[in-house]
Write a structure and sequence with these properties.
Elements: H1 2-22, H2 25-80, H3 84-145, H4 159-171, H5 174-181
Helix pairs in contact: 2-3
């Protein structure tokens, strides 16, 4: 059982090592920045869609208000002339319009609430994106200048090398071997 666990750990460590070797930090940073910009653009597009929906709802409500006012006048005129049948006919056309206006108004309020919340989120995320851009730019500059670059020629250290170094240090001969080998 212990042998299988050790083999599993070796395979896992080797897989992580391969992924780390393949991963270029600059590419990862740029991709993360593009992902953040994409997410913010999606939110901005949703915000624009909400603005368009608010304008559409305002036009719809205005149109309904005009039709409702005209039908209200017709009902008043029919009642003033004693034409109850005509007043009922007009009311059957008027009442659905009032319901439609009420529904449109409720939706307008809902869209306005969603717009306000999303606008706040977009503003916060835009500021966070600006800060992220600055940090990524700084990190990329450091990577390109070589200050954080991994040492060249320094590959992974084999387990056997570590074991030998430990044995040398335990015996106190590390200094003598290093001086003689250098």
């Amino acid at each position: 059982m212990a042998l299988w666990n050790r083999i599993r750990h070796l395979i896992t460590a080797d897989a992580h090592g391969v992924v780390d070797a393949l991963e270029d930090e600059a590419l990862v940073l740029r991709q993360c920045l593009r992902d953040a910009e994409g997410a913010l653009e999606q939110k901005r597009a949703r915000l624009a869609a909400l603005v368009a929906e608010q304008a559409r709802l305002a036009r719809e409500i205005d149109g309904l208000d005009g039709r409702i006012a005209a039908l209200d006048d017709d009902v008043e005129l029919a009642l003033a002339e004693g034409e109850e049948a005509l007043a009922r006919f007009t009311l059957r056309r008027l009442l659905p319009l009032r319901r439609a206006r009420s529904t449109a108004e409720a939706r307008r309020v809902e869209v306005a609430r969603e717009h306000a919340a999303l606008a706040e989120t977009v503003a916060e995320q835009a500021a966070a994106l600006d800060a992220l851009r600055a940090r990524v730019r700084e990190r990329l500059t450091r990577l390109e200048s070589g200050r954080d670059a991994p040492p060249t020629g320094a590959g992974p250290v084999a387990d056997e090398e570590v074991e030998l170094e430990l044995l040398r240090r335990r015996r106190g001969t590390a200094g003598a071997i290093t001086e003689g080998g250098a």
